[in-house]
Model the fold of this input.
Amino acid sequence: MARKTPDAADASPVADFEQSLDALEQLVDKMEQGQLSLEDSLAAYERGVGLYRRCQAALEQAELRVKRLTDPGQPDSAEPFDAGRDA
Done:
């Protein structure tokens, strides 16, 4: 699989989400097999947390875009998604 280049930072949040989610799913599958050493498990967990945060940020950006499209008359009234709200 190709590594990200600096130009890849300009990729759409949806594309970044898909790539990060795929990597996270593969990482979880690998960890669930139980064949990793403790050190490798910790490194995988750290990478998984980073991937999770990237996915969450992409979802928040997507929600903000939807809010702006839903109410284009007041795009400044759109607020970032709060996962704790309505939970």
